[in-house]
Amino acid sequence: MMVEEVLHRISEQAKRKRMSLPDHKTKIVCTIGPASRSREVLVRMIQAGMDVARLNLSHGSFDEHRETIRNIRAAADDAGLPVTILIDLPGPKIRIGDLAIEPLELHKGEVVTLTTAPAAGDPTRIPVEFEQFPQLVSEGSIIYLSDGFLQLRVNEVAGSDVRATVIVGGPLLSRKGMSIVGGGGVLAVSALTDRDRECIDFGLGEGLDTFSISFIERPEDILRAREHAARSGKTIKVISKIERQEALANIDGILRETDGVMIARGDLGVQIPIEEVPAVQKRIIQKANILGRPVITATQMLMSMTDNIRPTRAEVTDVANAILDGTDAVMLSEETSIGKYPVETVAMMAKIARSTEEKRSSIGPGCNLLGYFRQGKGREKITVNDVVSLNVIEALDALNIRFVLTPTRSGITPRNISRFKPEAWVLAFTRNPSTAKFLAFSYGVRPFLIRSEKEYWHGAILDAIRDWGLIEPGERVVLTEGVSPGREGTDSLIILTVD
Ligand SMILES: Nc1ncnc2c1ncn2[C@@H]1O[C@H](COP(=O)(O)OP(=O)(O)OP(=O)(O)O)[C@@H](O)[C@H]1O
Ligand SMILES: CC(=O)C(=O)O
Ligand SMILES: [K+]
Ligand SMILES: [Mg+2]
């Protein structure tokens, strides 16, 4: 009965369309906003390759996001493809409020007033949604707006008003972020704010369990989020957004505690010298790969496609380089939330990913992860699971195998294989919906939800993939399994020839 049940479930997933896998393995995360929240656009984005829909709770109301969540679920059903929803928490970011006229054009040399007093309707005053703001700046402070695209220099502080001269002008939109350099004020707010807790409750209420925490400082910030969810009896998956200096100083502890990590280059590029971003990106990707944590490279990847149908060469190269560095996922922000070409941008991402992945082996690995584990430091701390994943990679290469089948509870086994960025697909079979959802962030992993007991998995899984037409008769596949009694996790691999 168990076997029938699993077959029924898997074939249900496959029946909608004859099972096919994408032509690329890099996962694509898209920020959903006014340009993309309709069911119709979402279906096309999913078909173009969107794996994860990101809702940035810094923007929009709970009601709006609730409707967007409904649309995403309906669109995923329409497309017959899985989509994971990521809730991005606002964090302690100082933002400007809603502008009376949008965009507000700031001109070089002009003097503007930023104010924490109600400024509604007065187009000459820019509201700031942070009461202590005037205390954080003083004459000479530099204020960066909108990820540093706009710059102001403070002339004077008068009560709740701050007057500043525009050094670098341009269009300003509502609710853009602000970053202050110089001024003596210290921003002493925890990475997990009260608003973040409300947003976690909102997400849990919508049946979601994957959250990204903005401006994480240290591992304790992750624990606070986990504890908050635990009060409602829930377990959550946390993606730590690395976007400030303190997080870089604590990166090893953060990576150990977190489920996944995002290189949030928008804020990071203002919080640290911008020229250090490329090296930081490579270092975080390497560390995340070693620990088998999925890593997302985010912000400005195809920025010019917000307005144009074609990206720049530099942007295409940036996406390709992040993939060669070993990123699991790439993310789109403005491009899909407010851009003119959300669907085309996703399709472009997918095209760059396919082409880059095809050439990865001839270009050579960005970081030598295999070497790390086979000699040097990785050798000392090696686990049984590490050894199994290394043996899987060896078998895939030596025998030219196209599929690894991994029954999994926590997702560790497919993630540990995926971190080597193999050419084979990792098909992960799990009974845990949360595990299946979170594997959407891992390179080259396709999760399937099953209901059967472990003993019945092998036959059922093989039957199902044969039915899908993914595997040719006579083809070899790798299957991982846990056989040690009383020990959790994978400790064995089998090389099976499909009849
Ligand atoms: N739900 C939304 N409603 C309206 N506009 C949105 C929404 N989500 C995103 N946007 C727009 O897209 C822009 C880019 O999105 P993004 O998620 O990068 O935000 P951000 O303001 O840079 O903040 P963060 O640092 O948290 O990412 C936002 O600044 C905003 O203008
Ligand atoms: C994504 C994000 O928060 C950033 O790039 O700053
Ligand atoms: K955010
Ligand atoms: Mg940010």
TrEMBL record:
Pfam families: PK (PF00224), PK_C (PF02887)
Top class in the EC scheme: transferase
GO molecular function terms listed in the Swiss-Prot or TrEMBL record: ATP binding; kinase activity; magnesium ion binding; potassium ion binding; pyruvate kinase activity
E.C. no: 2.7.1.40
InterPro entries per record: Pyr_Knase (IPR001697), Pyrv/PenolPyrv_kinase-like_dom (IPR015813), Pyrv_kinase-like_dom_sf (IPR040442), Pyrv_Knase-like_insert_dom_sf (IPR011037), Pyrv_Knase_AS (IPR018209), Pyrv_Knase_brl (IPR015793), Pyrv_Knase_C (IPR015795), Pyrv_Knase_C_sf (IPR036918)
Pathway: Carbohydrate degradation; glycolysis; pyruvate from D-glyceraldehyde 3-phosphate: step 5/5
Protein name: Pyruvate kinase
Species: Methanoculleus thermophilus
